[in-house]
Amino acid sequence: MTDKKHTLGQAIDRIIEALEPLESQARQTAINAACSHLGIQVVGVENNQKPGKGSPSETPVVNPVGPGIKQIDIRTLKEQKNPKSAAQMACLVAYYLQELAPQGDQKNTITAADLTKYFKQAGFKLPKRIEQLLPDSRSAGYFDSAPGKGEYSLNAVGYNLVAHSLSKTAGD
């Protein structure tokens, strides 16, 4: 290393210049290694697991979502929020995909296929008729119908349920 001092802006420019040519996963690996080497604490976990392969692996990642917001996997969120019903879990999945999922997985609408995928990843029991869960949850006031066939979007009631009402200590 040289004794030459750099401004914060110059340091950021050099980091970006070094990472730009790399693939996304290689960038993350480089950032994690650099943070580890420099003793910088990283926040959150990234789910590197293929569905159905046991518990999620926990790889620390630099917080890509923003300051003060941790990126977590669906299983951890389910354990934190402790949904009591399939409808509450459907809201949790929609909230996760809208607010907390990794950048490439985020979306504003969900389908029965999304519910199946994320219920399994979270270790939540699948309902007998999962294809009926979103229409029923819409009737209960948690979702709005979206333009795509079989697609639903979380409305303010569903959002507030997850963000403000569900927790480990919340009752039924």
What does this structure look like?
The protein folds into 2 domains: 8-61, no CATH class; 74-165, Orthogonal Bundle (Arc Repressor Mutant, subunit A), CATH 1.10.10. The strands form 2 sheets. The chain has a two-stranded antiparallel sheet with strand order 1-2. A two-stranded antiparallel ribbon has the order 3-4. With 172 residues, the chain is mainly α. The relative contact order is 0.11. Helix 4 crosses helix 6, helix 4 (86-100) packs across helix 7 (156-165) and helix 5 (112-122) crosses helix 6 (130-139). The model is unreliable at 44-68 (pLDDT under 50). The longest helix has 15 residues, at 24-38. It contains 7 helices and 4 strands; from the N terminus they run H-H-E-E-H-H-H-H-E-E-H. A hairpin with a 6-residue loop joins strand 3 (143-145) and strand 4. The protein has helices at residues 8-19, 24-38, 74-81, 86-100, 112-122, 130-139, 156-165; strands at residues 43-47, 58-61, 143-145, 152-154.
Question: How much is the radius of gyration in Å?
Answer: 19 Å
Helix tally equals 7
- Report the span from N to C terminus: 59 Å
Whole-number average pLDDT? 79
Please give the largest β-sheet: 2 strands, antiparallel
Low-confidence stretches: 44-68
Number of E strands: 4
CATH architecture of the largest domain: Orthogonal Bundle
Shape: elongated
Strand order in space, largest sheet: 1-2
How large a portion of the residues is in β-strands, by DSSP E?
A: 5-15%
The sequence of SSEs as H and E is HHEEHHHHEEH
Structural class: mainly alpha
